Amino acid sequence: MANCSYCGKPAGPSNNSHNECIKLHVSGEHWITAMIGAFVANERKTQELKRAIDLVAQMSYIGANALRPLILDGWKQAVEQALQDHVLTIQEERALYQIARQFMLSDDEMKKDGVISRVDKAVMIRNIMQGAIPEFPIDDLRLPFNLQKSEKIVWLFAEVDYYEQQKRTRYMVGSKEVSASTALALYLKTTEVSAEVIESEESVKVDRGILGVTTKHIYFAGSKKSIRIHYSDIVSFKHYSDGFGVVHDTPQASPQEFVTDDGWFAYNLVTNLARRV
């Protein structure tokens, strides 16, 4: 008769674990990660959080080796939870770092999946909202931008894909798409074929390059395309999971889109800088 892998008591001839122990173990895992998020929201003493987690771990048969990944997952979830409203408060920032110190999370653990980077960027956004504009350390970098007087670089994004909305004309014969020349040949050959012209707009990748966000403009420089957009010329911003788009304050303007792989930060960065112009 095998013993339960959780409580150590006999589990029966064909079982390795009690169903009750399994349920208790899984519930304990959820409780531990949830408690960390609740701590950040309520900002209580970290000693109380540690005692509560240790108690749940003991009752749920969660050993030390399994506990640390849960704490790290809970901390990551707490970061995401704190950023849901796009603002990281001073209280939330303090609570996150208190947890990291209490459980001795290493720099490598916090850097995994870019989590600590998201915290640092959220702090930057908060500082900008409060009027403290940072300056990106460009050192000896040769930037492909012609900055104006008193203008400074706030952030640089490398390997950014730049997209423009372009019109596309499609020629359909029945349910099949054909070229313009084929559609014309069919039309001239017979009038029994029903051809349809469909016009639409789609995002087309134009170039890849460096994106500079400054106190006055958004710059892009690639091998084919270079642009400068003043914040006051932007009528609206679009938020994407991997970037952002802008629409000029001109008739028939179409979106220009920048893929930065960090849509949350890029969108909040440019929109908050635009509010200060």
In words, what does this structure look like?
This protein is α+β, with helices and mostly antiparallel strands. It has two domains: 128 residues, no CATH class; 85 residues, Pleckstrin-homology domain (PH domain)/Phosphotyrosine-binding domain (PTB) (PH-domain like, Roll), CATH 2.30.29. The protein is built from eight helices and ten strands. The strands form two sheets. Strands 3, 4, 5, 6, 7, 8, 9 and 10 form an eight-stranded antiparallel beta sheet that branches. A hairpin with a 2-residue loop joins strand 5 and strand 6. The protein is extended and about 75 Å long. The model has no long low-confidence stretch (mean pLDDT 87).
Tally of contiguous helical segments: 8
**Oligomeric state of the chains present here:** single chain
What structural class is derived from the secondary structure elements? Answer: alpha+beta
Distance between the termini: 75 Å
Shape: extended
- String of helices and strands: EEHHHHHHEEHEEEEEEH
Total strands: the figure is 10
Radius of gyration: 28 Å
Q: What number of domains?
A: 2
Please, what is the average pLDDT?
Answer: 87
Main pleated sheet: 8 strands, antiparallel
Strand content: 25-35%
Helix amount: 40-55%
Low-confidence stretches: none
